[in-house]
From TrEMBL:
Top-level taxon of origin: Eukaryota
The family this protein is said to belong to: Belongs to the glycosyl hydrolase 31 family.
Domain Glycosyl hydrolase family 31 C-terminal: 694-788
GO biological process, one term: carbohydrate metabolic process
Pfam families: Gal_mutarotas_2 (PF13802), Glyco_hydro_31_2nd (PF01055), Glyco_hydro_31_3rd (PF21365)
Classification via SUPFAM superfamilies: (Trans)glycosidases, Galactose mutarotase-like, Glycosyl hydrolase domain
Protein name per UniProt: Glucosidase II subunit alpha
Domain Glycoside hydrolase family 31 N-terminal per the UniProt entry, residue ranges: 84-310
Molecular function as annotated in GO: alpha-glucosidase activity; carbohydrate binding
Organism for this UniProt entry: Candidozyma auris
Annotated Glycoside hydrolase family 31 TIM barrel domain residues: 356-685
């Protein structure tokens, strides 16, 4: 090819791929990010920095926190006063907060305080309840404050008053420090005229302080001028850091300092995102974690403004430096420390809350596409699942079920009688999810109401904000306005008169486009100088908006009934923030039907799981485009492991429901979906555990094997919660084999496609094995030491499985033991909160297998009566072939099946609501007679 043609082709190709980059600011194009990076370079090069110090005479212990004044010293020697707090919160969480007194700053119609409500929005419950008394823990010296904490006083936080460096020690070794690189930067308030005296000329840049020079952002009024907050946090003796979703990137975060793209946290509607990128996406959770074999750390940067995070790694001594840069708000930081990665989830969850226990149906398979055209289409899809004997729970309707994209209406031609359709779905135990977005088309009842009562987002002139989204010109509900809640409640009421929901119980909600997406807005979102309730600028709380929207919906849905029997709401949100897990599930947005998006879906979902947002998944099949039959099959085989398992497709893509590709693909897809259903007890139990301690449902290997640093960057393999199932999905085209990493020396029993086998991989040291695969193969293993619970009958939906018997798979470890857990409740209501649940703890040791049942009340015990364990499969018990079963004072011999080296107890008929015991033994002559 001629060189010019090659160049032209390459440019075209690059352009085609870089089509949307121009919409989003990288660090160099963003005033506050670029200024802070400039500052970092100047500090590094000159060894000088802007002085900050805490005035020791100002320190006071007030309501369990230390309050003081921190000073920033300007070049003119003038001091800027910054109120400062230092405290200890529940769960061994140290908090440090820096604010600015802007009470003298007055700008008409604008709240001029720094936004300090992010923490309250993140916290589950009142902030005041989170503090731990500092009595006998704190020592205030002349130059430093020391807090010693932890059950064994193993942690120590030392704040140097002269440098504002905070170092946290574990057993006297420094693990993490704040501001040790002296990158703390607090751009205090000044007017454009005063600016010259307020800038350290050699250290600071003035780029875009009062004006925004970027594309569609040029009309940003920036009425408060520069107000960024930034600081460095160094993880000492760590190689890997994780978290800060949402990015289409690896689990272990990459170095960014030489790129224009630090990890950016700014919720946006990113069209056709890249499969490997640090660009902003729909949601953000400002939590970063780090793990080494001795200790784990979590950092939560409680700021909801546009934020960039640079990551830089050093090898001698080994450390990871993160540089956090936010456009506005207060600096409010939590540093959490614990002995394992799981402790960090638990401890941060004491502040942020854990995932809400989902209804069981929502862990089943969700069938979605944009768009199922009408009632007939919906019911036809519904019956095809039965025809092909594929279980599913929920069918979804995308934006066009509405009358011309006016939410809270149904299109009268396509859906003339929604209640009839919902009833028909209900007959087979199925549900429907419908989409409700936060924007409302102009000139209909709802937008008129929002405008008239002033409960919409406002522009900087305090008029209702009007811009474009799906329906054309629209207004946006301000979900931070308490009066919006009342109106939203009314719209969601369950009653005969409610035209959208009626009294149906099987209709649930999808809150989409909630970043918010504004088609003609800067960077596809709302203008940063918009106003919310309280006259807060959108700039300061942008990343919270999606969360506040799905919470608005949640609050309305829980009001539908007033007792325990009400259903736990199911809401899918596209935009999220720290704390979203309490009320919604999420997914990774508009991916593409390409292999690389299948691959990236795994680290993306693992990352969300690692920061307490486990109810997540990716569009199975890929949203844009048409997957090949092979890709579609592999995507289902991977998708069954996403905690949230939904197929979805764009309007322009071809139909691809499981039966569409035909054989052998349809059978493989069916097998995969059926496997998901048989594992629902394990998924539900994992969610129960996560709802009490934050443990990931899709669990990275560094949780199971924190002692083995070789697993720290593995992000194509994972465990299902604490079930012991380890999976390595096939994500390469035409794969003939996969490499599976075996992280320890326990037996890993072959469980390919969900069938227990006696063969186990037993390595003398951790390492990689090769496993051959064909198109039907889902490589998976059950780790010795676990007891897995499953239900094997095919049913049309999860609701119909309720009374089905259980099958226990006992996988013995090297010492002949195993443990497992099963959580059971009514699968849909909040009654479990008042005791209507049961937990079975299973244990195998020395040829005895036991089930001990804790039932929270008699109601559940009665409900579970008659539900039995019909089979127990034992892996690794080579020398036994008889079993005596006992329950309720009765004893009987179990029928035994020994095939292919597996021991099966067939039909032991053990009720799951009472304790039981099985004694395995070698058969005697007497047994055989
Ligand atoms: C954007 C969502 O990401 C996508 O899943 C949905 O189909 C479209 N909005 C249309 O509502």
């Amino acid at each position: 090819m001629h060189l010019n043609i090659v160049v032209a082709f390459c440019c075209f190709w690059l352009q085609a791929w870089a089509a949307k980059d121009y919409l989003f600011k990288n660090c160099d194009q963003s005033g506050f990010c670029s200024r802070n990076r400039h500052y970092r370079r100047q500090v590094e090069n000159s060894g000088r920095h802007i002085p900050y110090f805490v005035d020791p005479s100002s320190i006071e212990l007030k309501n369990d926190k230390l309050e003081a004044t921190l000073y920033k010293k300007l070049e003119s020697n003038e001091l800027v006063k910054l109120p400062f707090e230092f405290s200890l919160l529940k769960g061994d969480n140290v908090r440090l907060k820096i604010d600015e007194d802007r009470s003298k700053v007055r700008i008409k119609g604008l709240n001029t305080k720094r936004y300090d409500e992010t923490a309250q929005a993140i916290f589950d419950g009142p902030e005041e309840d989170k503090y731990v008394s500092l009595k006998e823990k704190v020592d205030i010296g002349k130059d430093s404050i020391t807090i010693v904490y932890g059950a064994d006083k193993q942690f120590k936080a030392v704040l140097d008053l002269n440098s504002v460096v905070l170092t946290i020690y574990y057993q006297d070794h420094p693990q993490v420090s704040f501001n040790s690189k002296q990158l703390l930067n607090f751009e205090h308030f000044r007017s454009e005229e005063e600016n010259v005296q307020n800038v350290h000329s050699e250290l600071e840049s003035t780029f875009d302080m009062f004006h925004d020079s970027f594309a569609d952002s040029k009309d940003d009024s920036l009425r408060l001028g520069p107000e960024s907050v930034a600081a460095d946090i160094v993880f000492h003796n760590f190689d890997h850091v994780y978290g800060i979703p949402e990015h289409a990137d690896s689990l272990s975060l990459k170095e960014t300092t030489d790129s224009s793209w630090p990890y950016r946290l700014y919720n946006v509607d990113i069209f056709e995102y890249y499969s490997e990128s640090r660009m902003p996406m729909y949601g953000s959770i400002p939590i970063m974690t780090a793990t080494n074999p001795t200790v784990s750390v979590g950092v939560m940067w409680m700021n909801s403004a546009d934020t960039y995070v640079d990551v830089n790694k050093a090898s001698k001594p080994k450390s990871v430096t993160s540089h956090w840069i936010s456009e506005a708000g207060v600096l409010d930081l939590i540093i959490s420390m614990g002995e394992s990665p799981a402790t960090i989830n638990k401890n941060l969850g004491l502040l942020t809350g854990y995932v809400q226990l989902p209804q069981l149906f929502s862990l089943g398979y969700h069938q979605c596409r944009w768009m199922y055209n009408d009632e007939e289409d919906v019911l036809d899809i519904n019956s095809k699942f039965d025809k092909y004997e594929i279980p599913y729970d929920t069918i979804w309707l995308d934006v066009d079920y509405t009358d011309t994209r006016k939410y809270f209406t149904w299109d009268p031609d396509s859906f003339p009688d929604p209640q009839r359709m919902l009833r028909k779905l209900d007959h087979t135990g199925r549900n429907m999810v419908i989409l409700i977005d936060p924007h409302f088309k102009l000139d209909y009842e709802i937008s008129d109401h929002i405008d008239k009562y002033g409960i919409g987002q406002k522009n900087s002139r305090n008029e209702t904000y009007k811009h474009h989204c799906w329906p054309g010109e629209s207004v946006w509900i301000d979900s931070l306005n308490p009066s919006a809640q009342e109106y939203w409640d009314k719209l969601h009421e369950s009653s005969k008169d409610n035209a959208v929901f009626g009294e149906a119980q099987n209709v649930h909600i999808w809150n989409d486009m909630s970043e918010p997406s504004v088609f003609d807005g800067p960077e596809t979102s709302a203008h940063k100088d918009n106003l919310h309730y309280g006259n807060w600028e959108h700039r300061s709380l942008h990343n919270l908006v999606g969360k506040s929207f799905h919470e608005l919906t949640y609050n309305s849905l829980v009001k539908r009934a007033s007792n325990d029997q009400r259903q736990r709401p199911f809401i899918l949100t596209r935009s999220f923030f720290a704390g979203s897990q309490r009320t919604a599930a999420t997914w990774t947005g508009d991916n593409m039907a390409k292999w690389e998006y299948l691959r990236t879906s795994i680290p993306m979902t693992l990352t969300l799981n690692a920061v307490n947002m486990p109810f997540a998944g990716a569009d199975v099949g890929g949203f844009f485009g048409d997957p090949s039959k092979e890709l579609l099959t592999r995507w289902y085989q991977t998708g069954i492991w996403y905690p949230f398992f939904r197929a979805h497709a764009h309007l322009d893509s071809r139909r691809r429901e499981p039966w569409v590709p035909g054989e052998p693909f349809t059978s493989y897809i069916k097998d995969a979906i059926r496997l998901r259903y048989s594992l629902l007890p394990a998924f539900y139990t994992s969610f129960y555990e996560s709802s009490t301690d934050g443990s990931p449902v899709m669990k990275p290997l560094y949780y199971s094997n924190p002692e083995n640093e070789d697993v720290y960057a593995i992000d194509d393999q994972f465990f299902l919660g604490n079930s012991g199932l380890m999976v390595k999905p096939v994500t390469e085209q035409n794969a003939r084999y996969v490499e599976v990493y075996i992280p320890d020396t326990e037996p890993y029993y072959e469980f390919t496609d969900g069938f227990p086998q006696a063969d186990a991989i037993r390595l003398s040291s951790p390492g990689t094995i090769k496993k051959s695969v064909d198109l039907g193969t889902i490589p998976m293993y059950l780790k010795g030491g676990h007891i897995l619970t499953r239900k094997d009958r095919y049913r049309r939906s999860s609701r119909l499985m309720r009374h089905d018997p259980y099958h226990l798979v006992v996988a013995l470890d090297n010492s002949g033991s195993a443990q497992g857990l099963l959580y059971v409740d009514d699968e849909e209501s909040f009654a479990y909160r008042s005791g209507n649940f049961a937990i079975s703890a299973f244990e195998a040791t020395g040829n005895t297998i036991k089930g001990a049942v804790f039932a929270g009340n008699d109601v559940i015990r009665k409900e579970l009566d008659g539900i039995v364990i019909e089979k127990i499969t034992v892996l690794g018990a080579d020398d036994v072939n008889a079993a005596e079963v006992s329950q309720d004072g009765k004893k009987w011999e179990a029928a035994i099946n020994r095939k292919d080296g597996i021991l099966e107890l067939v039909g032991p008929k053990l009720s799951i609501n009472k304790d039981w015991e099985v004694k395995l033994r070698k058969s005697t002559r007497h047994d055989e007679l």
